[in-house]
Protein: Glycosyl hydrolase
Organism: Enterococcus ureasiticus
Amino acid sequence: MNFLLLTLTQNSLHIQEKAQNTLISEHTFPFSDFEFPKTAELLAAQIKELFPTATGAVFSEIVPEFYSENTNVTALNASIENLIKHFSELLNLPILTVSELEAATDLATAFKEKSEYLTWNLDYFGYTPGKEEYSVESLLTIGNGFMGLRGTVPEMTLSKEHYPATYIAGLYNEEKSEVAGQIVENEDFVNTPNNQYISIKVDGTDEWLTLEKATLHYLHRNLDLKTGLFSSHMIVEDSHQHQLKITAKKIVNMAKKNNYSIQYLIKPLNFSKDITVKTTTDGAVYNFNVERYRNLTAKHFHITQLLAEKNKAMIEVQTNQSKINVQQVATITGDFFGADTVKTSIGQEIIEQEITFYAEKNTTYTFEKQVQVKASIAKENWETPLLPATSFDSEFAESKHAWETLWKKSDIRVTGDLMSQKLLRIHTYHLLVSASPFNNNDLDVSVTARGLHGEAYRGHIFWDEIFILPFYVLHFPETAKQLLMYRYNRLGKAKENARESNYAGAMYPWQSGLDGSEDTQKLHLNPLNGQWGEDHSILQRHVSLAIAYNVWMYWNNSGDDQFIKEYGAEMLLEIANFWRSAATFDEMTNRYYIDKVMGPDEFHEAYPDSTESGLKNNAYTNLMVVWLFEELENILSLLDTQEQTELFNKTGITQEHLKKMEDIRKRLSIEVNEDGIIAQYEGYFDLKEIDWEKAKEKYGNIYRMDRILKAEGQSPDDYKVSKQADTLMLFYNLNKEKIDEILAELGYDLPEDYLEKNLLYYLNRTSHGSTLSRIVHAQLAEEVAFHDLSWKLYQEALYSDYQDIQGGTTAEGIHTGVMAATIYVTLTTYAGIDIKKNYLTIQPNLPQNWTEMIFNIDHKGIHYDLIVSKDSVQVCPSQDTTVIVQNHPYQLLANNVTTINY
């Protein structure tokens, strides 16, 4: 086993490669004026090239001269811990400190334990206020599906530097704002009162401790993904040189939807004096997370009650338009005060509670705050009295056990790749924070595009559900069903939306919030030129197809016929009826067309020089419509004659309508060129090409090519440029065999290699302006055996939020769609499972550096434990069944492990 010894001096990184105690090679990498993390990235690239076989490393203590000689680094933000973290992630290796090496009895075991820690923990060292800090807070968010708390330390308040927030699933409010000279209405995801604030003041000083004004010597924030525990460790010095060690722990109880707890430990390091602790219940907060929304109306609630007595405080607020009530009750306790010693003041919007006590040097004092949060949108929960929380430890024990249950169902274990393992767990964690089987099944909500982590997209629910739902379908079917009920409960509103636009059936909104109204904004800010322009994304009617697909996906995987009979068939029929009414017959071509839509691409809103928005015959939309009409037949066959009659009476859909759907299904139009390229929409081939190299040279980051073109006075409508996979999304949703069938039924004859040709054609014209784009392309690239391309795009998608590759979007909340999609592609593309067929089908295709995957899924009511390696699959089903491995059927016995070699 080869490992590296890394020694950092003031102007070089010296590396020794060792096998046990034998020196194999060594090298010195010089640098001048170390910049962090830029220099670390350059050094890591060189190390990977020179030492490709290393399995771990040890990092020596850093000499003081390193910080005095390199003016761009500080011991706060470039501590040895932070350097180890970054080098470990860049090299994809476990790295030990010298003390960890000395304590180890066996080096291999020490590296294994360090790897285990790294894949279950998220660590941040130092403090960089602003957008980078906002991103850290998003990734450190804790929650339980009902509420989410951003990953701030207790001393932080709402500002441009950092943003504590408390979000509740389904909590929306609509307000009017003046934009570009006109009044617009926007429905927003509401930031609720902040009960997390705690700070101290030492006797003899006149200011409360803040990160902005104090001298911060050390800050380490950790999120334990396994238990949902957030902790921060800080050494800080106020303006009078009082040094303190402050440790904070925070959990949202996964087992109890209403509870969160904070434990706050204070230790004076160089003094003994009176200390005053202050905690607040702050109703003065407002929405501030997204910079481009800050000029809009930001206050979404008014206070209806503020009460406090002894060690308790209560705030109740009501949203201004939606009239939703939120109540927060806080109880404070500690080992240095009693309830009678709490000094309370109640203002117009805030309750302040203070305790003054004498603190001895080097003694630790414990303060706890238990907060219970309720919202009237969860009606039964709102009306049920809650038992008071007792202590941080008891709340944490309950929550930890609940997390253990969730991880048993959802963890994917990858051998051979530390960072992929870590990122898959980060993604799984944040999905469980966004919706959980413990706390969502009685809520009328779905998963927002940014989880319970931030305010981007105003917390709305989009077509991202098509990427998100499969995670729950595979692991927590009851939660998937609840998320689909959010859509069923808004079917009436979707029918209203269709009628208002002169369509039949159900037309679900592009952006959905509280009641299922269309909540897409009418104007969009281009940050490159500061101008507001019209937003036509409402025309992305394919959101209804995403909902239909998820209904089918849930039913097809769970076998829940009862759901179909009670809810699903009605949704599919109404959505299909909408598309029937959207199709028009063209006697010239003897085919139907669908116009006035936008595809998933989003950059194209209209034809060049057109005064009307909307496009004709978007390939993704049309072929998914054909798929829907086909599947509708299968779904309706589940209903007996009486059930069908009742359904047709309820929906008003007739046999004539069904015959029309069948005709559309066989004659819907798409455009295909002589090379077998399926046009993104009719007329796409007439657009101009972009000089991509020139654009990259001029702008660097060209992800949002639409904004660049508009800032230059041009339009993306004129160019063959896509934000993300559009036509290619078909192959993410459906097996190629299914698409082949659809194309054949429509009468289109494409060459054998048309998928490869389409993949390369659109890859060369896609800017990946959405993080979802890479993961879709990664799956398709693997399907056509472009393994290196697949791996590159997959890795970019895995890292997209963690490294905030879009330059600040993670600050506004994590991307639930891409997090769920990376998990789905890991299982379906690399482990090779196919859940769309009657029997579980497995065709493993592990990446080169992965040796094994261990995971479990539910399929057709059967629970499977699986281990997939390069040459075998181990399967243990909960019932007798058949699985298909590498195209061969195998009979399996319940609760027996079967090893299948290939």
Summary: The two ends are 30 Å apart (CA to CA). The first helix runs from residue 38 to 50. The chain has a mean pLDDT of 95.
